[in-house]
Amino acid sequence: MRELRILHTADVHLGRRAEAFGERGAELRRRIIQAFERCVSAAIERRVHLMLIAGEVFDRPRPGRRPLAVFLEQMSRLGQASPPIEVVILPGTPGHEGWGEDSVWNLPELRSLPQHVHVLAEPQLQRVEFPAWETLVQGRPWSEGMEKGELLAGMRKDPRFTFNLALCHAAIERGDIPAASSTEVVSCRQLAACGMDYVALGHWHRPSPTSECDQVAAYYPGSLEIVAIDQERPGHALLVTLRPGRPPALEPIPTGSLKHEALTIDVATIADESALRRKVLELADEDLILEVKLTGVAELGFTCDVEALEEELADHFFRLQISDTSHVSMEAAQAADFPEEFIVGKFVRLAKSQIEQARASGDEQALRI
């Protein structure tokens, strides 16, 4: 086998619970379906041998009729391709897909899948062999009572196969995520010990620009569509080409329609709320999730009803969030403008007193604070 082509995806989240998107939740679920359809179309058009889904096809153990129907329809498309495209699926986290008897993969609709669809739902390490392509795929899902480090236990390269692949739904150990902290965390050392030619990761919604580990080719494709307000990168799948003795060749395949942008505005540069409104509207786009953060020191007369402005401009974006971390200049504040019986009046008087004391003592650090 000279070349193996794989379409690697993960974290599809069909039937997404999208409370953070408010009234746009139903629209987000529709776009996730479209992204999944684009992913399957790309697999067919690129004539891949395998599709690997590294966890969380569904967002919840009981996703509803529509997500189940969409999944089955897309699996059927892959089976009708010429030649048929084999699919290997690793279940995701219990919080999304459940486990045991409560697993989404135990639903009646999913118990008898077509022969080209392989779900690694059993609690032990599982292997799927594809002799025609000299390929072995291994994976173990999360299960109740799993010990830390058990997710990859026993997973080793089999020299009888040209291509050894692994599916793993977990976070990679890093400075703020120690490997011993949870069953959902694995280390690069553990992954390298498996000796795989390619590790198809899932769990993080952002794609890997380079391998997550120096010692082994391990990549996150990211989710197919933006599924969280703060998700910075648009949806992608990964087209992976493997050749014996060579590093994997990766090509990101765009699948999502949404994009994200974070805009920080120093209120000192804004004359009034009308100017702020115009600046936000410059980015108006029905496919854009925009996070606006107001910062800096405002002049005393500057006022902005953030909630009202967010509601007014919401229809110009897929989702708009405006937060205000700015504060009023104490230099400009006059105590007489704030009655002493109110909390803000007490605060202004205290702040101005401390500013005067710091200035008199030459305490530059206190003045900066």
Commentary on this structure:
The structure is a single chain. With 369 residues, the protein is α/β, with parallel strands linked by helices. The protein is 24% helix and 25% strand. It contains eight helices and 18 strands. It has helices at 25-45, 65-80, 94-97, 188-194, 273-281, 306-313, 343-361, 364-368; strands spanning 4-9, 50-54, 86-90, 117-119, 126-130, 135-139, 163-169, 171-172, 185-186, 198-202, 218-219, 236-242, 249-254, 259-266, 285-295, 297-298, 317-324, 327-328. The strands form five sheets. It has a six-stranded mixed β-sheet with strand order 4-3-2-1-12-13, covered by helices on one side. Strands 5-6-7-10-11 form a five-stranded mixed β-sheet, with no helix packed on it. Strands 14-15-17 form a three-stranded parallel β-sheet. Helix 1 runs parallel beside helix 2. The longest helix has 21 residues, at 25-45.
- What Rg, in angstroms, do the CA atoms define? 26 Å
Runs in which pLDDT lies below 50 for 5 or more consecutive residues are none
Strand order of the largest sheet: 4-3-2-1-12-13
How would you sum up the major sheet?
6 strands, mixed
Structural class: alpha/beta
Rounded mean pLDDT is 89
Percentage of residues in helical conformation: 10-25%
Mass-distribution shape: elongated
Total DSSP E strands: 18
Q: Total number of helical segments?
A: 8
How big a fraction of the residues is strand?
A: 15-25%
Task: Tell me the distance between the termini.
Answer: 65 Å
H/E element sequence: EHEHEHEEEEEEHEEEEEHEEHEEHH
